[in-house]
């Protein structure tokens, strides 16, 4: 269960400058995420985990992101990657969580990269994988490649296969020097390693129901993938709004009036607050669908649509807050500028692309309409 986030928040406040300088989490900040329960949140109960809800994760991640979006990003992904690892065969789960559920799992699974070829009893995995957030502190890394299927007659298309590899068996290359989310340590991973069959699964396996599985282990990957990346964006936008309004409330104009009393600033407050609150409602609805609603293609597409729109609303709010903050926000260490950079960087993630979500939503609704017409 995700609880007692204050140690994470306090460590993040103390280490924010270090994160920006080193472009990675500090070890003690990663330890605080483990202690708060992020790594075990989606681990199966049989392995000592919580098999938790997406609503609880959204709430916790957004709280942390108000203080540090990079820390929240890694916490969200450590949780999400524990969910992915639950699709390993039983022997693989035992190897990964045999000593307990508090294992940091990094990943680079979309798009597939590197190369995989079959060997006796397993696979040979070679190549490089970009943007493996939190890999420096991870115990394991999930890496995906296009892999050949079993030998047969006509050569079928390769499949998107995920491989679990010990962090000690790969090399992390220092490639992460971004404008935002600097502390996520989303570096490149290099591997040349043999992976046994029990430490791999395919992307098609994600969301396949297992007997007596928890809800979080039965929902399809596309239903929840974008939600994980949007949660830090929401928290960062809420933090930016709070920082901006505190400054306006404290700033005194030359005539002695408060900046917060000026109509222009009040309009910025009202507009951005509405955008951020609307984004929260959309993401909370998406999380509740993931936790409870009967899964259909339209439901999946609605989640993708709502998450993409929520992120657009947060970006709009962050842009307006930054533009209206005055020259003080231009300072490199300014928390409002930091939030603006983090939100801007996070919004470029492929799962949050609105055009892609719109196409999925239109396709799903058209298909549903066609099915309904065929039944009449």
TrEMBL record:
It comes from Streptomyces solicavernae. This is Acyl-CoA dehydrogenase family protein. Residues 227-353 form the Acyl-CoA dehydrogenase C-terminal domain. Keywords: Oxidoreductase. Transmembrane segments: none annotated. It comes from the Bacteria. The keyword Oxidoreductase applies. Gene3D superfamilies: Acyl-CoA dehydrogenase/oxidase, N-terminal domain, Butyryl-CoA Dehydrogenase, subunit A, domain 2, Butyryl-CoA Dehydrogenase, subunit A, domain 3.
């Amino acid at each position: 269960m995700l609880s007692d986030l204050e140690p994470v928040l306090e460590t993040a406040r103390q280490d924010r400058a270090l994160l920006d300088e080193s472009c990675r989490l500090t070890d003690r900040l990663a330890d605080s995420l483990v202690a708060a329960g992020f790594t075990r949140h989606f681990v199966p109960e049989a392995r000592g985990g919580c098999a938790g809800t997406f609503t609880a994760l959204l709430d916790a991640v957004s709280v942390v992101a108000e203080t540090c979006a990079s820390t929240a990003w890694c916490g969200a992904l450590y949780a999400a990657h524990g969910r992915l690892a639950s699709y390993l065969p039983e022997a693989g789960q035992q190897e990964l969580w045999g000593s307990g559920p508090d294992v940091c799992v990094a990943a680079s699974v979309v798009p597939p990269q590197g190369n995989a070829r079959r060997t006796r009893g397993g696979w040979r995995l070679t190549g490089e994988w970009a943007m493996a957030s939190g890999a420096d502190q991870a115990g394991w890394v999930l890496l995906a490649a296009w892999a050949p299927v079993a030998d047969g007659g006509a050569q079928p298309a390769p499949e998107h296969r995920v491989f679990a590899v010990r962090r000690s068996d790969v090399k992390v290359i220092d490639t992460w020097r971004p404008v935002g989310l600097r502390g996520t340590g989303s570096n490149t991973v290099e591997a040349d390693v043999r992976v046994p069959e029990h430490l791999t699964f395919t992307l098609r396996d994600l969301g396949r129901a297992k007997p007596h599985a928890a809800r979080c282990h039965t929902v399809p990957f596309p239903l929840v993938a974008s939600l994980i990346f949007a949660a830090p964006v929401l928290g960062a936008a809420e933090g930016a709004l709070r920082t901006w309004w505190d400054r306006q409330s404290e700033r005194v104009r030359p005539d002695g009036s408060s900046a917060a009393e000026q109509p222009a600033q009040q309009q910025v407050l009202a507009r951005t607050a509405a955008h951020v609150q609307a984004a929260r409602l959309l993401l909370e609805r998406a999380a509740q669908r993931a936790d409870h609603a009967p899964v259909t293609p339209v439901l999946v597409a609605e989640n993708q649509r709502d998450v993409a729109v929520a992120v657009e609303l947060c970006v709009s709010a962050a842009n307006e807050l930054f533009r209206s903050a005055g020259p003080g926000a231009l300072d490199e260490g300014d928390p409002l500028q930091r939030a603006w950079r983090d939100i801007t960087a996070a919004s470029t993630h492929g799962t949050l692309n609105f055009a892609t979500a719109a196409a999925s939503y239109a396709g799903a609704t058209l298909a549903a309409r066609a099915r309904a017409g065929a039944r009449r």
